[in-house]
Amino acid sequence: MTRALELARKGRGLVSPGPLVGCVIVDKFGEVVGEGFYVFEEVKHAETIALAQAGDRALGGTAYVSLEPHAHHGRTSPCTDALISAGIKRVVAPIQDLNPNVSGRGFEHLRAAGVEVQTGLLEEEAARVNEAYLHYMRTGRPFVHLKLAVTLDGKIATRTKDSRWVTGPESLKRVHELRQQYDAILIGIGTALTDDPLLTDRSTLNRRRSLIRVILDDRLEIRDDSNLVSTAQHFPLVVFGNKEANPSKVRELEQKGVEVISNTDRDVNALLHELGRRFVVSLLVEGGAEVAGAFFDARQVNKVTFFIAPKVVGGREATTAVGGLGVERMKDALKLEHVEVTQHGDDIEVTGYPIIEE
Fold first, then answer.
1. Across the beta sheet with 62-65, what order do the strands follow?
2. Mapping DSSP to helix (H, G, I), strand (E, B) and coil, where does residue 116 land?
3. Which of 53, 166, 206, 352 has the fewest CB atoms nearer than 10 Å to its CB?
4. Which is catalytic among the residues 35, 42, 47, 274?
């Protein structure tokens, strides 16, 4: 199962809006005879690829699959049919697929055909591999991963708004690896005006869908000659702002390939609903401070990563990492669990999951 999850991860950036799936076929003598992982464009699912490798040796064997096999006719024939036809006697899958077309039906079909089904093995690890997909299936909204680069004193820019670069090259490389795994990336207009970023995925890793660049721009202040607008014909750019405030600006932006969507109150929930409607499964929020504060205040952050540089900026007017309202009492501060700490050059990456208290 560990190998099946490892195979599933090989599909990062290549499966959205589908799930990451890996499969290992073990014959009746306990030898691995087939492996496969799902890539959207190749159509074939992990199970069918692994079964093709295994051939006749799959008869009487066990399939270790990172997610419940599907039993419906979609872009491919049911994977359960393929497993049954190959003579697989046992299927081990840690978690159920939450897609309503699949959920529970795959297991039911296998059991009805006399195949032994075991669930729960490495359940937590499997759910983590498909955290974005499972969240999207539960809510219809993208999984939100908020990423910030900060100094030891919690600053993301100096008092003159200089923010290049807070962290070192090793952390920047890691950030682009993160971008490759997400469907969309989001910043506020303040960061767009100050940094004039491209917001592209420069990881050099393959990806299936173009990274959608999302800007929160209430008054439509984005510059026509910015890197973002200038590249909108090649890389998708979506601006959430007040279309009624400046109709002529909307027309100019749309002529340059920018999609403008009305969102006048920086309503995080409405924004996530709109992105979910467009099959954006995962969203990387990169700042700045007020955007981070808006997502934290709305309690719409599913994962947090801080890259901490061994620097001290100081200054009352230097920009603090998270704006917004915040909490009044320390006991109400958002707490993280499942925290992982990794070093990148001189920088430290701290990643964790907000504890959602009922």
1. 32-37, 22-26, 62-65, 90-92, 116-118
2. strand
3. 206
4. 47
CA distances from 322 to 106, 128, 276, 331, 337 (A): 44, 26, 25, 17, 19
Angle at the Cα of 205 from the Cα atoms of 340 and 139, rounded to 5 degrees: 60
pLDDT in tens, 39-50: 877 768 999 999
Is-catalytic flag, 47? yes
Q: Are strands 143-151 and 303-309 parallel, antiparallel or unpaired?
A: parallel
Q: What is the pTM of this model?
A: 0.93
Identify whether the C-beta of residue 137 lies closer than 8 Å to the C-beta of residue 295: no
Q: How far is CA 110 from the centre of its chain?
A: 31
CB 66 within 8 A of CB 93: yes
Distance of alpha carbon 304 from alpha carbon 347, whole angstroms: 16
pLDDT tens readout for residues 143-157 = 999 999 999 999 999
- Tell me phi and psi for residue 334, to 5 degrees: -65, 125
Q: Where do the domains of the chain lie, and which CATH numbers do they carry?
A: 2-131 (3.40.140.10), 141-354 (3.40.430.10)
